[in-house]
């Protein structure tokens, strides 16, 4: 006859196996939601190169680029019941050398990012708590009758405002115009002006509740997971922007 410890280990092992199988099936079920309708397009709005300290902790002055861009993206196909949040980013690809014929691998630098949470499910813990707690007696919740009435009134007002408000767009739909980059582009050499063949592109990372992370662009190993990403037209970093005092000094000389 098995001891209590052996029985507990057997039960724990059984439930662990069941949990792993259910988690695997949940992760694979996302393949039933095709994402090939995903689209993203980014275009350059403005760029300038200045010299200074790009960050407050920078030890020296260096050249860095400031970029503004337009972004049109429909990432709503990436959201399904297993999506927790979506990490979207815009990055610039540019030559790592100031020599046009250099064979050095190109550099990539993220200039903007954002986290888009999925729409809360009506079956989530917070939603269920909001529905159940108001109907429980005060002896269990510890909420007085006055406070319960106040919360009920606030809930009714919120529902009325929600009904009267316009429906929000789907999560993942982005329309940005003249968006300023969060992060400046700098180089280890400290020189960035007049670099050639610079392009902007969009990427994303799907973070599920259960399963592996999905990166973009897709590798194509899984069918119907490729999206359409339109990069910006190639451009060059402009010459270093000079201060007015330096420009006036050159003109007077």
Report on the structure:
The structure is a single chain. With 253 residues, the protein is α+β, with helices and mostly antiparallel strands. The protein is built from five helices and nine strands. The strands form two sheets. Strands 1, 2, 5, 6 and 9 form a five-stranded mixed β-sheet that branches. A hairpin with a 5-residue loop joins β7 and β8.
Net shape: elongated
Mean pLDDT, all residues: 79
Number of helices: 5
The biggest sheet amounts to: 5 strands, mixed
- Strand count: 9
In angstroms, what is the radius of gyration?
27 Å
Which residue ranges are poorly predicted, with pLDDT under 50 across at least 5 consecutive positions?
160-168
Query: Which secondary-structure class do the elements indicate?
Result: alpha+beta
Portion of residues in beta strands equals: 25-35%
Q: N-to-C terminal Cα separation, in Å? A: 102 Å
Give helix % range.
25-40%
List keywords for this structure.
253 residues, alpha+beta, five-stranded mixed β-sheet, four-stranded antiparallel β-sheet, elongated
């Amino acid at each position: 006859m098995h001891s209590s410890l052996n029985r507990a280990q057997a039960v724990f092992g059984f439930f662990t196996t069941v949990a792993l199988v259910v988690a695997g099936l949940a992760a694979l079920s996302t393949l039933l939601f095709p994402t090939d309708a995903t689209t993203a397009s980014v275009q350059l709005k403005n760029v300038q190169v200045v010299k200074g300290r790009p960050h407050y902790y920078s030890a020296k002055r260096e050249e860095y680029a400031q970029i503004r861009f337009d972004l049109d993206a429909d990432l709503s196909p990436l959201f399904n019941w297993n999506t927790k949040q979506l990490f979207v980013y815009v990055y610039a690809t540019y030559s790592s050398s100031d020599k046009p014929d250099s064979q050095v691998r190109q550099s990539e630098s993220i200039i903007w990012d954002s986290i888009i949470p999925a729409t809360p499910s009506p079956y989530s813990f917070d939603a269920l708590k909001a529905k159940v707690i108001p109907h429980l007696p005060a002896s269990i919740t510890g909420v007085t009758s006055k406070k319960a009435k106040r919360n009920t009134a606030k809930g009714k007002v919120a529902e009325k405002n929600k009904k009267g408000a316009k429906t929000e767009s789907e999560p993942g739909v982005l329309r940005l115009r003249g968006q300023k980059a969060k992060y400046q582009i700098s180089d280890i050499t400290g020189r960035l002006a007049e670099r050639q063949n610079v392009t902007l592109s969009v990427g994303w990372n799907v973070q599920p509740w259960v399963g592996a992370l999905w990166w973009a662009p897709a590798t194509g190993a899984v069918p119907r997971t490729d999206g359409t990403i339109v990069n910006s037209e190639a451009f060059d970093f402009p010459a270093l922007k000079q201060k007015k005092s330096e420009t006036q000094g050159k003109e007077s000389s």
